[in-house]
Amino acid sequence: MTAQHDHRRLGRELALFDTDPMIGAGLPYWLPDGAVIRHELEEYVRDLERRAGYRHVYSPVLGKRELYERSGHWAHYREDMFPPMRLGAEEVVLRPSLCPHHAVIYRSRARSYRELPLRLAELGGMYRSELSGVLGGLTRVRAIQLNDGHVFCTPDQVADEAARALELIREVYAVLGIEPVRYRLSLPGEGGKYVAAPELWDRSARLLTEVLEKSGLPFEAQRGEAAFYGPKIDVQIADGAGREATLSTVQVDFHQPEQFGLEYVGADGGRHRPVMVHRAVIGSVERAVAHLIELYGGAFPAWLAPVQLVLLPLSEAELGRAEELAGRCLELGLRVEVAGPEQGSLGARVRAARLAPYQAVIGAREAAEGLVAPRLRDGCRPSPLPADAFVARVAAGVAAREREPSLD
Ligand SMILES: [Zn+2]
């Protein structure tokens, strides 16, 4: 990774996010331009999940200690959790994961096999008492926004649901331009970190192996990387320096349904235990955005770009025209700026706006004829075209989440 593409450096230079010792290490805040990227990414994933049959929920970032004792986090994951807060006779903790909340939502009423697979998703906060590592960026943080989801299904549906989750991850990566470095089948290692239920581990590992084999993706099995309650498929990405991290996961879990006594009434009228498929499509929003910042070096696809379109009136005379066009862009939902002559020569303004996917120059001729002279981020300068047609084309490219700006 070149220093130029370090997300911490770009994050500061482009005013995307920052940290402050008054808030604390590992607790970044998002500046307006960074918040735009995050919001667009979150909305994209929510929309995709809706289409894939997920229902979105919200659940609180705190829970009683008993909730995590029940889920197993307290016994197996406690060193990564913030210490509990005493509240009268109770202890509450910042949640280390969303799973227990979703299990509780599942069992909030009786479930029939007809409702399964029940797919619940949430973009929610979770917390990790990270002590070491590089704090100051978005990759090692103490407050994480997780793109989480849990599919509650019958044992017969597990393989299909895990395969669908993997497919969803691959679809998102194709749109975002993210290339995984490898798919990892993460299995338990030695020691007491894992719940003891050998037959369940074997069963889930077999299921995930089948899913990976059917997908035709190359994968490697690795011991010691499983979640404490089950094996998982980890989708690994790397930064420019080759440092690997897990972005997305698919997990099969027989343990938590057992712990929470989850049930559904089957076609036979009897009570059965569902299986939980845990999946994170873009995983931690912080890590996903860090990766995108480094991947694009700040030159984001138009749909993610903080500023999508910069209008450049050549002189004072065209300023009114540019402002009127900016108003129309705003109405179309585009993020637009007018860089007027008070900001310097045209060349200087073009350079200042070099990360914006689209620019449009308005000179005397363009103003008189209702045209703009477009410039694309790659330096391409198509011939002038009617302002309305140009703006409509930009909006269409944004809606289609095109990777590169184009007027074709
Ligand atoms: Zn989960």
UniProtKB/TrEMBL annotation:
One term of GO molecular function: metal ion binding
Name of the protein in question: Threonine--tRNA ligase
Keywords associated with the record: Aminoacyl-tRNA synthetase, ATP-binding, Cytoplasm, Ligase, Metal-binding, Nucleotide-binding, Protein biosynthesis, Zinc
Name of the gene this protein is made from: thrS
E.C. designation(s): 6.1.1.3
Reaction(s) catalysed (UniProt annotation): tRNA(Thr) + L-threonine + ATP = L-threonyl-tRNA(Thr) + AMP + diphosphate + H(+)
Lineage: Bacteria, Bacillati, Actinomycetota, Actinomycetes, Kitasatosporales
Top-level taxon: Bacteria
Residues passing through the membrane, by range: none
PROSITE patterns in alphabetical order: AA_TRNA_LIGASE_II
Gene Ontology cellular-component annotations: cytoplasm
Any Gene Ontology biological process: threonyl-tRNA aminoacylation
Enzyme class: ligase
Record-annotated Aminoacyl-transfer RNA synthetases class-II family profile domain positions: 32-301
Family annotation (InterPro entries): aa-tRNA-synt_IIb, aa-tRNA-synth_II, aa-tRNA-synth_II/BPL/LPL, Anticodon-bd, Anticodon-bd_dom_sf, Thr-tRNA-ligase_IIa, ThrRS_core
Entry similarity comment: Belongs to the class-II aminoacyl-tRNA synthetase family.
